[in-house]
Amino acid sequence: MYVQLKQRDMRRPPVNVSTLARMKKEREPIACLTAYDASFARLVDRSGVDLVLVGDSLGMVIQGHDTTVPVTVEDIIYHSRHVARALTHAFLVADMPFMSYSEPEQALDNAVRLMQEGAAMMVKLEGGEGQRRIVEHLARHDIPVCAHIGLRPQSVHKIGGFKVHGRDPSQAERMVTNARRLEEAGADVVLLECVPNELGKAIAEQCRVPVIGIGAGPDVDGQILVLYDMLGITQGPVPKFVRNFITAADDPLAACEAYVQAVKSGEYPAPEHCFS
Ligand code: KIV
């Protein structure tokens, strides 16, 4: 019983929502990466990452699709339960796939599956203004929620491509309001993708919960990257915010350790990874 807990190194206790809140308060940057299988998850966990996301980016980097749209709840559960077996320290978040949270009851059923079958500790959903009632419903049932705003890849066909969000002042203002409303609805973490530095800073300052950025500049509470991008496995062009950590490392573990170190010291993201 409780094999995973027995294996845990208590000098490095498992991260939970309180740890993340404390890190924000103490201004300790939160280092996050994605993982999709047990071998990489073990390595990422060992490198000192605080949070691991089983992202629906698996649709692109594992399954070879052009977008995250085809990913299913079954896919996330499959990968999440393998990742969960390998983690002893990092907090496990699993993505709610496209159209798996369009109504409150459907969202609750799927979130429960990600937690019970996928062993996730928090679910992430792409939180447009219409998702507040979904977040509220999940929070009312004690489901920890991460609200993903800014560029929302599941909406790529509606938006017309992967692009920077919030450059227009009125759009930026709406995004700050949306972040605060999602927080009020019960989101425990906000994830902010592809926005100008200044907007990243404003949202991190105005939210009480941790704000994790990907292409959101250096002034947020933590950083996340897709593992295959930062290890140089992804072929072809990668987004501007990606830094390849394998070129200066001896092996993937050293690359992940260098990433954690760069996030904690504030060395990553550098100006060339940011949007204005
Ligand atoms: O699916 C994913 O990996 C994500 C990250 C890009 C944050 O949402």
The sequence of SSEs as H and E is HHEHEHHEHEHEHHEHEEHH
Helix content: 40-55%
Give the uncertain stretches in residue-range form: none
Could you say which small molecules are bound to this protein?
Answer: 3-methyl-2-oxobutanoic acid
**Largest sheet composition:** 8 strands, parallel, barrel
Please tell me how large the radius of gyration is: 17 Å
Distance between the termini: 51 Å
Give the number of helices: 12
Note the overall shape.
Answer: globular
Strand coverage percent: 5-15%
Q: Strand pairing plus helix content: what structural class?
A: alpha/beta
Overall number of strands: 8
What's the overall average pLDDT, rounded?
95
Summarize this structure briefly.
With 276 residues, the chain is α/β, with parallel strands linked by helices. It has helices at residues 3-7, 17-25, 38-46, 58-61, 73-86, 104-116, 132-140, 156-159, 169-185, 197-206, 227-230, 252-265; strands at 30-34, 51-54, 91-95, 122-126, 145-150, 189-193, 211-214, 222-225.
Structure description:
The chain has 12 helices and 8 strands. It is globular. It starts with a helix and ends in an 11-residue tail after the last helix. Helix 7 (132-140) packs parallel to helix 9 (169-185) and helix 9 (169-185) runs parallel beside helix 10. It is α/β, with parallel strands linked by helices. It has an 8-stranded parallel β-barrel, surrounded by 8 helices. The mean pLDDT is 95. 3-methyl-2-oxobutanoic acid binds at residues 34, 53, 55-57, 95, 148, 191, 214, 224, 226.
